[in-house]
Write a structure and sequence with these properties.
The structure holds two protein chains of two kinds.
Chain A: H1 6-22, H2 27-34, H3 42-50, H4 69-81, H5 88-100, H6 106-117, E1 122-125, E2 139-145, E3 148-158, E4 165-172, E5 175-182, E6 188-194, E7 200-212, E8 216-218, H7 222-258, E9 260-261, E10 264-265, H8 270-298, H9 304-333, H10 344-356, H11 361-371
Parallel strand pairs in A: 1-4, 2-4
Antiparallel strand pairs in A: 2-3, 3-7, 4-5, 5-8, 6-7, 9-10
Helix pairs in contact in A: 1-4, 4-5, 4-7, 5-6, 5-7, 7-8, 7-9, 7-10, 8-9, 9-10, 9-11
Chain B: H1 21-35, H2 49-62, H3 80-92, H4 101-113, H5 116-127, E1 133-136, E2 152-158, E3 161-174, E4 181-187, E5 198-204, E6 210-215, E7 224-235, E8 239-240, H6 246-261, H7 265-280, H8 287-315, H9 325-346, E9 355-358, E10 361-364, H10 367-372, H11 382-392
Parallel strand pairs in B: 1-4
Antiparallel strand pairs in B: 2-3, 3-7, 4-5, 5-8, 6-7, 9-10
Helix pairs in contact in B: 1-3, 3-7, 3-8, 4-5, 4-6, 6-9, 7-8, 7-9, 8-9, 9-11
Classes of the chains: A alpha+beta, B alpha+beta.
């Protein structure tokens, strides 16, 4: 779609077709999964690995399929459309990109292998409670002592909460580095916080966690690397929101055609038609913002600030649009929309979670305003 | 689109599409900055043709009057990205719009539906600005319900061959005072369904029987007019497309209009005025203002994202669907939100009309607001645009 090489266009089309085939809306299954709490159907997750998706950003030499962020965004959009809560963005974009960007080590190879094969779950613990998008937001401190590292502090909103390995962005002797910590390590306590979509995110407390220093993936300079992965995760979450918006509109559109009141189908009422147009326009704006952002990400030589601004434009629009669409869709349905047995609710609840994750609309608008100044001329 | 049999317009200095985007932008920018009259920059209201004529005559002579037209018809033949750059630079330098129906609407229309004779007769004077058009669509009893129009045209035999005799009244015709020609929707078949009996005619504004009366608007300006038509004789050669097929012809024009009305340039102009008002009100750095400004800034950025998608389709020669209506809705309503924030920012001074002293400078505080209000009405009201999308894009049932 961005005028790139025909081979890449063809690969991307293949990915879109495969994703459309694989990820289909299934509200019943979603309700079953949410009781399992981490949002994961292991069979689906291993199928996603089988398609190569979990290694979409991992270089071929490291066992992945080595495609770019646009491929990841296409998969994300379709996952949103089907309302899959499997943590594709959190694992295959955020965690995988971070680990892949680390210098080669046996720990790096082991982690990339398990991500790509779905053998075990890996999550990046980077965030604290502030809601900022800063790579060093989590307040975890690490002190190297001979061949061991000792961690103290807390990280929050970690997804997937059931990860076997957490990659912790920690201040190692004052510099931001990355450390791999297994879930079962002594001194690490994991609190599962329920999220609106029926899943959980983890709150990690590190109290004297001591691990071998061979589990240090990166001693310093993690800011750039985590920021790169965060920008891509932000963009892919915008794509996932676009999928949620798309399907929410479809559900509402068909309800308006089927539901009759006052002897006619309610979709013939002008006031509802105009509301439908307003949510549809937000979908089109989201898609256009996403496409523009992907062009910036695909352009060699685009600066980090250009990428940040592009990601913010797309995520601000997607988050704002998703919540607007959710609210309007609920209103147009009437009471049925608010009941758990109806499909719309799972989309509304997932929209709430993803609109807030990786920076909500207000955060991204602020960041965009700080990055791109319109000046009087 | 037929291949023209003759050469239109002047030769282009070079193949613009062969330049890099940056180089092309530099060429356009330096030309505008060097030659466009400073006094005409960022006019808060529509300017009349007389003050603008020297600039647009120069653009015509340079071959830059029709950036979106193909080369073979005398345009610049710009690619989507180059066209956007051209429009962006026009906006950036605050270049005023002239009565540009000829370039935006009639030209593309004649390329598609016109005869070779019509193209030979009308395209050259459009390209050199000797013909200025106004639009004869709305009538006192036919606004949003345009298809109910009652102006009648009867085909008759005369000394010089077949012609139409037109009787009726048009209204809300923008800048008819400055026009040399008018394009008209007229009823040629009273028996057919409303849309099926309409034809599309071109007429010289000086034809006997055409009378123009300007209408004063609430901003105190005379930008639109009533046009009275009494036994106006229009040659049959001025019929565009088939007789009774004018609705189809006009509908394709509205597509062009909706793309141009959806250009981000109006909103970008509005953001500029807003920044000025904020600076003069000493609110530029106020966090509440910044937050609201950035929200609008992103509304405009995303408008530009959508606009470039539609502009790309247009330049590739694709037919635009009903979804293009969203451009007009989003751009005009965003413009209104920008203008609303402007008067809120100016405080009590927003009651002052015209060019006024404010914060030590001259500024037209209400300029954007008066410009923004009618934008959701003209060119097919936004309610009509929403009806179109609801029916043709979302396939919602009609009553």
């Amino acid at each position: 779609m961005n005028g790139q090489s025909p081979e890449l266009d063809e690969t991307l089309s293949m990915i879109s077709r495969a994703a459309a085939n694989f990820a289909r809306p299934d509200a019943q299954r979603r309700r079953e999964i949410r009781n399992s709490s981490d949002g994961l159907d292991r069979a689906i997750w291993s199928d996603m690995a089988g398609q190569g998706w979990l290694g979409v950003l991992v270089p071929e030499a490291a066992g992945g399929i080595g495609l770019g962020v646009e491929a990841a965004a296409r998969i994300s959009e379709r996952i949103g459309y089907a309302c899959f809560t499997e943590p594709f963005v959190d694992v295959a974009v955020l965690a995988a990109r971070c680990v892949a960007l680390c210098p080669d080590s046996s720990e790096r190879s082991r982690l990339l292998d398990s991500i790509c094969s779905s053998a075990s779950l890996v999550a990046l613990a980077w965030q604290g409670s502030s809601g900022s998008l800063s790579p060093g937001d989590a307040a975890v401190n690490a002190v190297v002592n001979g061949d061991h590292v000792r961690l103290e502090g807390e990280a929050r909103f970690v997804v997937p909460s059931s990860a076997e390995t957490f990659i912790v962005s920690a201040l190692i002797d004052g510099k931001l580095g990355l450390v791999a910590v297994s879930a079962g390590t002594r001194g690490l306590s994991i609190d599962h916080e329920k999220t609106a979509d029926g899943c959980t995110s983890a709150r990690l407390a590190f109290a004297g966690v001591t691990i071998p220093s061979s589990q240090i993936l990166l001693l310093s300079g993690a800011e750039t690397l985590v920021a790169t992965a965060l920008e891509e995760s932000t963009l892919c979450t915008a794509a996932e929101l676009l999928g949620l918006i798309d399907r929410s509109i479809e559900i509402t559109q068909s309800y308006l055609g089927a539901r009759k009141q006052f002897g006619q189908s309610i979709g013939s009422f002008q006031v509802l038609q105009h509301r439908m147009v307003d949510i549809w326009m937000q979908k089109e704006l989201t898609r256009a913002a996403l496409m523009s952002a992907l062009k910036v990400f695909a352009r060699e030589g685009a600066s980090i600030d250009e990428r940040r601004a592009a990601a913010s434009s797309a995520k601000a629009r997607a988050s704002q649009a998703a919540l607007f669409v959710a609210g309007q869709a609920l209103q147009m349905h009437g009471a049925i929309g608010f009941s758990d047995e109806y499909e719309l609710g799972i989309y509304v609840n997932r929209s709430l979670v993803l609109a807030a994750r990786y920076g909500n609309a207000a955060l991204h608008r602020r960041r965009y305003g700080d990055l791109v100044h319109v000046t009087e001329r | 689109m037929n291949t023209p049999v003759e050469k239109f317009g002047v030769d282009q200095e070079q193949d613009w599409n062969a330049l890099s985007d940056d180089d092309f932008r530099e060429v356009v920018r330096s030309d505008f900055e060097a030659h466009y009259p400073k006094a005409l920059r960022y006019s808060p209201h529509r300017l009349r043709w007389a003050p603008l004529k020297p600039w647009y005559k120069r653009m015509a002579a340079k071959g830059w009057i029709a950036p979106a037209w193909p080369l073979e018809y005398g345009g610049m033949g710009l690619s989507a990205s180059k066209l956007l750059i051209f429009l962006e630079e026009q906006e950036r330098w605050g270049i005023a719009r002239y009565p540009d129906h000829g370039v935006l609407m009639i030209g593309p229309l004649l390329m598609r539906y016109g005869t070779d004779e019509q193209r030979r007769r009308f395209l050259p004077p459009i390209l050199n600005c000797d013909i200025i058009w106004c639009q004869g669509y709305s009538e006192p009893e036919a606004g949003s319900d345009l298809a109910s129009l009652r102006t009648r045209a009867v085909l008759a035999q005369g000394g010089d061959g077949d012609h139409f005799v037109v009787n009726g009244q048009k209204t809300w015709t923008t800048l008819a005072q400055d026009a040399t020609h008018i394009f008209l929707l007229v009823r040629t078949n009273a028996e057919a369904k409303p849309q099926a009996g309409i034809s599309f005619l071109l007429a010289d504004i000086n034809t006997p029987g055409i009378r123009i009366r300007p209408i004063r608007d609430i901003a105190g300006r005379e930008e639109f007019c009533e046009v009275f038509l009494d036994d106006v004789v229009v040659p049959r050669a001025n019929l565009v497309g088939e007789i009774d097929q004018g609705w189809t012809v006009a509908k394709s024009l509205l597509g062009f209009e909706r793309v141009s009305l959806g250009s981000p340039k109006f909103c970008e102009y509005g953001l500029q005025m807003l920044l000025k008002i904020a600076r003069l009100s000493r609110l530029s750095e106020d966090p509440v203002f910044r937050e609201r400004f950035t929200t609008l800034q992103l509304d405009v950025v995303n408008l530009a994202d959508v606009y470039s998608i539609f502009a790309g389709r247009l330049v590739r020669g694709e037919t635009l669907g009903a979804d293009v209506s969203m451009l007009k809705i989003w751009s005009t309503e965003t413009f209104q939100r920008i203008a609303d924030l402007g008067i809120e920012t100016a405080g009590v001074a927003a009651g002052l009309v015209g060019d006024v002293e404010f914060g030590g400078e001259e500024v037209n505080i209400l300029g954007s607001w008066y410009k923004a209000r009618p934008a959701t009405v003209y060119g097919g009201s936004n309610e009509i645009q929403r009806n179109i999308i609801a029916r043709n894009v979302l396939n919602l049932p009609s009553r």
